[in-house]
């Protein structure tokens, strides 16, 4: 067994509490004695127990990460995995661990997120996939630990909001489509409980209204899954006059639509153009490769951790952080004249 604080205390004839204070640079021990204790600890090859140290300081050095609605947000089919990469990198760099919580949307009414945080002694929490109809929103607003929420704005003293500049991303895509001659442009959105989808839809609608191009029959509502994209594509196929391009609020619905269109013999982009949003890994491996709006998931994760740790340090922090998206042009859009 390794050397313990009690072993050092016995050798020096002092209390274990005195040794603990000296090794943790806390008040109550003179400089000469502190130096002596540290020297003897080194001679005895003492290595502190990080878990015990955290407990003694009432710190867990742990951030809770909630990936919600797993039936809608599959890690392998979204940029959530990139967000996790960013969270893990930044947390580990700053001496913190992460504790991952997941659930399905059908279960969220049974979960008290902040109670879980207290039970697991996490010092802050990051949420991805939180919906406007989640019954825990009011409690999150009153959270006494720092909370960073991705893609849903929630007002609270200790709550931060991280998202893309979504209107800019939508405008980039629509500029690209209209410059290529597209005027009949459809949109795949998610439910109204997904705030980020509503923000993207409003940007799409405002852009086309300003140019007298908006057609409400070209708007379809899914739920961010590939399966809903497949179903929405079937509705598009039922129209007598179809849009020449579809802009989707995320990549998964766009990829689902691509599959349905190809199954009935439509060629992309010759017969219909497609643009997604997220730049999930699968987007560059489809045939054709999907044009999409890139979000930097790693940067999302780093910003979320930065907000929490700066709040814990008592620093002044911006409660809203917006990252600039970028249109990634591939092969799923065609010029028409």
Proportion of helical residues: 25-40%
Strand content: 15-25%
Largest sheet: 6 strands, parallel
Radius of gyration: 26 Å
- The helix/strand series, from N terminus to C terminus, equals HHHHEHEHEHEEHEHEHEHEEHEE
Q: Oligomeric form of this entry? A: single chain
The name of the CATH topology of the largest domain is Rossmann fold
* Terminus-to-terminus distance: 78 Å
Sequence stretches where pLDDT stays below 50 over 5 or more residues: none
For CATH, the homologous superfamily of the largest domain is named as Response regulator
Categorize the overall geometry.
elongated
Helical run tally: 12
Q: Summarize model confidence as the mean pLDDT.
A: 89
What's the level 1 CATH class of the largest domain? Alpha Beta
Describe the model:
The chain has helices spanning 5-12, 16-23, 31-43, 50-56, 80-93, 113-120, 137-141, 166-179, 195-210, 226-237, 251-263, 297-312; strands spanning 62-67, 97-102, 124-128, 147-150, 159-164, 185-189, 219-221, 245-248, 273-278, 291-294, 320-323, 326-328. It is an alpha/beta fold and 337 residues long. The protein folds into three domains: 5-56, Orthogonal Bundle (434 Repressor (Amino-terminal Domain)), CATH 1.10.260.40; 62-164 and 297-323, Response regulator (Rossmann fold), CATH 3.40.50.2300; 166-295, Response regulator (Rossmann fold), CATH 3.40.50.2300. The strands form two sheets. Strands 2-1-3-4-5-11 form a six-stranded parallel sheet, with helices on one face. A six-stranded mixed sheet has the order 7-6-8-9-10-12, with helices on both faces. Strand 3, helix 7 (137-141) and strand 4 (147-150) form a beta-alpha-beta unit. The protein is elongated and about 90 Å long. The mean pLDDT is 89.
């Amino acid at each position: 067994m390794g050397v313990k604080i009690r072993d050092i205390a016995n050798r020096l004839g002092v209390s274990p509490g005195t040794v603990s204070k000296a090794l943790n640079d806390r008040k109550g021990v003179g400089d000469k004695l502190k130096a002596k204790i540290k020297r003897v600890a080194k001679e005895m090859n003492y290595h502190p127990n990080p878990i015990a140290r955290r407990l003694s300081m009432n710190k867990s050095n742990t951030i809770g990460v909630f990936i919600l609605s797993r039936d809608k947000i599959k890690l392998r089919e979204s940029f959530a995995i990139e967000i996790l990469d960013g969270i893990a990198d930044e947390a580990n760099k700053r001496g913190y661990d992460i504790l991952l919580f997941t659930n399905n949307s059908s279960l969220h009414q049974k979960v008290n997120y902040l109670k879980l945080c207290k039970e697991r002694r996490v010092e802050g929490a990051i949420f991805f996939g939180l919906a406007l109809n989640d019954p825990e929103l009011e409690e999150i607003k009153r959270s006494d630990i720092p909370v960073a929420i991705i893609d849903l704005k929630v007002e609270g003293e200790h709550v931060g909001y991280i998202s893309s500049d979504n209107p800019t991303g939508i405008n980039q895509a629509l500029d690209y489509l209209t410059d290529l001659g597209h005027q009949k442009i459809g949109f795949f959105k998610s439910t109204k409980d997904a705030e980020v989808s509503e923000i993207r839809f409003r940007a799409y609608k405002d852009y086309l209204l300003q140019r007298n191009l908006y057609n409400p029959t070209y708007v379809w509502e899914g739920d961010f899954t590939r399966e809903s994209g497949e179903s929405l594509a079937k509705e598009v196929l039922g129209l007598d006059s179809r849009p020449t391009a579809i802009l989707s609020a995320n990549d998964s619905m766009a990829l689902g639509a691509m599959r349905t269109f190809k199954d009935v013999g439509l060629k992309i982009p010759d017969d219909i153009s497609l643009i997604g949003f997220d730049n999930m890994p699968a987007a560059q491996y489809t045939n054709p490769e999907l044009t999409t709006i890139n979000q930097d998931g790693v940067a999302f994760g780093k910003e979320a951790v930065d907000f929490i740790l700066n709040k814990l340090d008592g620093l002044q922090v911006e409660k809203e952080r917006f990252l600039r998206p970028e249109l990634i042009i591939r092969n799923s859009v065609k010029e028409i004249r």
